[in-house]
């Protein structure tokens, strides 16, 4: 139990006032022995037990009246665990909202998770009050001070967008704000549905964030407001590829004349199927192709339905365009549609940077060139070439999708050559070098660097890895990659700000992705040589991660770009929205799903693949993240809209009135009943009592 006006509790000693008055009244009279009263005193002793009990009850009732009045004026709060964690008025309230697509799930109350949780938060903030309300949004890179909590509901920015929320970024921004502004006391509210894709609990950043938060001198309380309930029978749609081919023979449409056709490959995922029939029925699909709509049906085949190379006729001469696939609305509209752009397939080019021979015959370069040069489908051409770091300065990277770096990390001057390539959306994978002295250990790239080389006496296998998204995710059928079968004999630890994708049994990251401002940089802490790892010998994992990185980099080439929301944060001022929800500003187009046009380019923005995975963070993982911090978790059940915090002063007023009534009843004089006279008799007076008579009427 906590109070909005705790200073009133200093008046609690006043509850002793009735007792003090009672003791004073007892000492007002002097006791003088009187023989004539001895018989009355003897009679009074017979009923002393009841009198004492009534006196104590009256004192207790009067004490409760005073206590109830004091507690009511102090304005107590009560709401389960939250009522014990909210303190007095704070100086600053920080608000961190998860606005990822999964927060668009409809709750039983008919609102989205984000809207429901935000409204409950606003009601609570209006009750407990604060001198300052600050909303932090790292996706839009802004910190906004609110005049009142209601602005959270009014702001259009409080709607869900297609970008995944990086909760670690939010907490880092909160810690930075506290250090720079030095508020007196802070309440930090985190609103989230606890999706693993938003929290990245395997990231090595959390230990550093936890230390940073514990070093803050100001009192900080963290309140996690969550709704982790999954969406029953929710379906998600995702387009895997959209390519153009000649309708006649499937040749490259750029070399063919006449009409062609669009080949669509897409998947429909339905998790937590409660009704098997609902996952095995005809499902209507709506196709919007350059503004022209059509419908067709597909039959679901369980929790995962794959449609490959669905042919859609195109008009003669049409080689580029855009479209949208959508399924009927369900509990989450954010994953019911997927935007795509199509055009002539681009050649997926890879550069393998190695200090050895450039002909690709070395043990290091050859496996990488093979993995990058063999296409996954006949419609897509892949090319790979090896070159030295010195030759990289002369290379044209405008049409390159992937760079594989195998030697020591280059100096900053060489890294600067790849900055435009990475900002454009290209991918870079660095393999740990088996050469280089200690002076090379201090070089970092995109915030990552190598540790000292370690050789194991026997093979070490991967202990754990992220298998639901990114380069090591499972295949479409749901089967996982055999990452656990990889054998590591030699490795270098990956150091720096990272998201660990794979770890050794001792927790050392062996495959990691940079979280620096430069996106698309991966470090693999071993090499492909046979005496160092089984990456080349058991080539499934190596081929899968290289082809996925190559596909991501190729999506940013040509006249069409297929981007993940939040991937490109700059250069959107010249974009024009062709289709999609009418939300956001031109500077935030990269955060919202839809199709945009920039000159002659078509750009499709969609949610990340990890948003289709419903795995959530466990309680143990949350306890580890907030270890040593003042933290509580408030679970929103069933889309409830009740206030998180309620004032219960009315309850104390009711108790005070009850105590008043009880005290009045106890103070009423005792009713004495007179015994009935004998039949025919007449009562003329009280019973005669002589000197020897008994007080109860019996003669002595």
UniProtKB/TrEMBL annotation:
Residues 676-700 are annotated as: Disordered. This is Aerotolerance regulator N-terminal domain-containing protein. The chain crosses the membrane at residues 6-24, 56-74. The keyword Coiled coil does not apply. Pfam families: BatA (PF07584). It comes from the Bacteria. The keyword Transmembrane helix applies. Residues 690-700 have a biased composition (Low complexity). Keywords: Membrane, Transmembrane, Transmembrane helix. It comes from Crateriforma conspicua.
